Amino acid sequence: MGRKKKEVNLDSISAEDLIKSKHYVNNNELREELILCKQKDELTEKAVLMFKQIAERLSMKLKYTNPMDREDCISQAVLDCMMY
Length: 84
What we know:
Helix content: 55-70%
Order of helices and strands: HHHH
Number of helices: 4
Structural class: mainly alpha
Distance between the termini: 39 Å
Shape: flat
Number of domains: 1
Radius of gyration: 15 Å
């Protein structure tokens, strides 16, 4: 018996829904969003939000003496993700 794949309409998912989910970024949703971005030849707001969530979660693993350093690292990580 195989599992049925649950189809998700990505257009109906808001930023609040992404934050409330069990995993802060779902691999399948990120992959689908990146495919959509490649087709449109531009990043969507949802993709940028996902990149930012990943960067913010990773920044929690480090200790910063200055909160501005954390914000700078998050901004640089999002920019790096946007380049690829």
